[in-house]
Amino acid sequence: MKRKTFALLALGVFATSVAEAAWDRNRIKPLSDDKKAKVQEALPAKSLAKPKNDRRVLVFYRCEGFVHGSISAGNYAIKELGKKTGAFSADIADEYSVFNKENLAKYDAILFNNTTHLVFQNDTQRDAVIDFMKQGKGVAGIHAASDNFYKWKPGARMMGGQFDGHPWNSGGTWSFKLDDPKHVLNRAFDGKGFWHKDEIYQYKPGTFVGSDEIRILISLDLSKDQTMGPLKRNDGLRKQYTEGGRYVPVSWLRKFEGGRVFYTNLGHNESTFWNSAVLKHYLDGLQYALGDLAADATPTSKIKRTAVLAPAKP
Q: Which H or E run contains 280?
């Protein structure tokens, strides 16, 4: 019996060490000085809301799956965003050990920056995040933050949906509509739909929580042929996204377990992190997650709004 117990423990240690070894932070290349300058030039001068307290954000960027080349730009942009505006200070981390109640008590929000296939190591880490939310704190996610927690349903549900491919690839320029043009978290776009070069996800059926639970801020403008293009090769899928009333959400906010969640799919391409409008969108979303910017999170299905489409051409 002792040998069996020892073997199981050894297997568990081995599995953990393999998981740890799978992540190599050296795959994240430092951001060049010229790209840092681009971020600095695009940063907003001030935040929309004055912080109620000294706010602190934990920026987590670990990847067990695909490693996005934009992670360095994201880490730098978020840290500088807080520093320049005074809205928050940011700590950058990639070790699962940061997810414990004692450590998380130091933070007001957790930001998952392009993390992929995260698998928390134990219930203590999972419980720490849920308890964090129950204390009325916040979580934010950038792009691949929805490509995680495939074995932990509450984690996947927290973000609002799980990755199911990206018909709208990173080399394309796509049209975006403002589903809620007057919402405070959309103020960066001046009430106008827009075009942007980035990679956009669709979400697995059954994992996307839908308009009954989230407030959709931005979605793809499928009225434009260029944006419908990736779907045209599949008649069934095109019908589902048009005649079936489907939509492709890009940014949203929601309440979860007593806390606040802001997610945006924008952020695959490095250049997104020196887009001034997107940086304002990140900032406002983070200030909502932090609890400093009041924002209506009433689910989309329970309100009436008229969306604003993108202009005819990019």
A: helix 276-290
* Cα-based distances in Å from 104 to 9, 58, 59: 28, 8, 12
Q: Name the residue range of residue 231's domain.
A: 36-302
Given a contact cutoff of 8 angstroms between Cβ atoms, the answer to whether 219 and 248 are in contact is yes
Strands 215-220 and 249-256: antiparallel
What are the two backbone dihedrals, phi and then psi, of residue 140, each rounded to the nearest 5 degrees?
-130, 150
Helix (H) or strand (E) holding 154: helix 153-159
Decide which of 248 and 17 is more confident: 248
User: What CATH number should be reported for the domain holding residue 293?
Assistant: 3.40.50.880
pLDDT band at 314 (very low <50, low <70, confident <90, very high): confident
- What values do phi and psi take at 146, rounded to 5? -95, 10
| Domain count along the chain | 1
**pLDDT band at residue 261 using 50, 70 and 90 as cut-offs:** very high
- Mean pLDDT on 64-68: 97
Q: Does the residue 210 lie in any domain?
A: yes
Q: What gap in Å lies between CA 282 and CA 138, rounded to an integer? A: 14
Q: What is the pLDDT of residue 239?
A: 66
Does any domain span residue 20?
no
Band of residue 184 on the pLDDT scale cut at 50, 70, 90 = very high
How far does Cα 258 stand from its chain's mean position? Answer: 19
196/148 Cα distance (integer angstroms) = 25
